[in-house]
Amino acid sequence: MIDRNEFAQELMLRETIRKAIGIVRQRRQKNVLGEQQGEKMLRDVIRSLINETSAVASVAKHDSTGI
């Protein structure tokens, strides 16, 4: 049978492990959210560049495609 001291130490260890797992989960969520936000910003920039290019292409039409 386990004595009181060992049982108390085991409970403290379990609580510490729970806290550590919680911290790791929070950090991972923060990283995922940061990546998603960065990806959204990149997509917005690419969209604006595509829109800008298509606007220029529609204005500057030439008879020859070599120009």
Indicate the mean pLDDT.
83
* Percent of sequence in beta strands: under 5%
Q: Largest sheet at a glance?
A: none
How does the overall form come out from the CA principal axes? Answer: rod-shaped
Total helical segments: 1
For the secondary structure, the number of strands is 0
Word description of this protein:
The protein has 67 residues and is mainly α. It is 84% helix and 0% strand. It is built from 1 helix and no strands. The chain has one helix at residues 4-59. The model has no long low-confidence stretch (mean pLDDT 83).
Which descriptors apply to this entry?
single chain, 67 residues, mainly alpha, 1 helix, rod-shaped
List the SSEs and their pairings.
Layout: H1 4-59
How would you concisely characterize the structure shown here?
By secondary structure, the protein is an all-alpha fold. It has 1 helix and no strands.
